[in-house]
Design brief:
Layout: H1 2-13, E1 15-16, E2 19-20, H2 24-46, H3 49-53, E3 56-63, E4 70-71, H4 77-82, E5 88-102, E6 105-118, E7 123-138, E8 141-152
């Protein structure tokens, strides 16, 4: 009985307000991978295709918002298209939603809010998206092994 009470006490001490405490090392992993997501978007904004491509595992496969399953060989195509029209610029805001850590695998979920402007700095388009990336730790690095993106319509049906 003494061991049951001790075990129960230890269990209760690990619970705060009805929820388990977050392991600090798990939060560190979530934050580290989120920083990589932010770096990803820095590379997109600056059209740094070399560094952008380094974030992806050679066996990556994903389903981007263009509805064409792709692999690493074509992962920079959309970035080139994004920068093709020099009379159009974009900014993006990221809205961090959730991360889930499974040892050396992390799933990341977030929203994007794009603003496109013309060369007069006038807003010409707003776009919202949903993104998920799955990252795998390989040695000291994290690489994207899978993902999916979707454009969200602002139209109300």
């Amino acid at each position: 009985m003494k061991y049951i009470i001790t075990a129960l006490f230890l269990f209760i001490s690990c619970v705060s307000n009805g929820q388990a405490k977050t392991d600090p090392s798990v939060q560190l992993v979530k934050d580290a991978v989120w920083q990589l997501e932010e770096r990803y978007w820095t590379y997109v904004r600056t059209e740094n295709l070399t560094e952008y491509a380094k974030l992806w595992d050679s066996q990556f496969i994903g389903y981007p918002s263009n509805n064409k399953i792709t692999n690493k060989e074509h992962i920079t195509d959309w970035v080139k298209t994004l920068h093709a029209d020099k009379n159009r610029t974009f900014t993006v805001e990221l809205e961090r939603k959730a991360e889930n850590v499974f040892g050396d695998i992390v799933m990341v979920f977030y929203d994007t809010h794009y603003t496109y402007r013309n060369n007069k700095n006038e807003i010409i388009e707003l776009e919202h998206g949903k993104i998920t990336h799955t990252w795998r730790r390989t040695g000291d690095s994290w690489l994207i092994i899978g993902g999916m993106g979707a454009t969200v319509s602002d139209k109300k049906n």
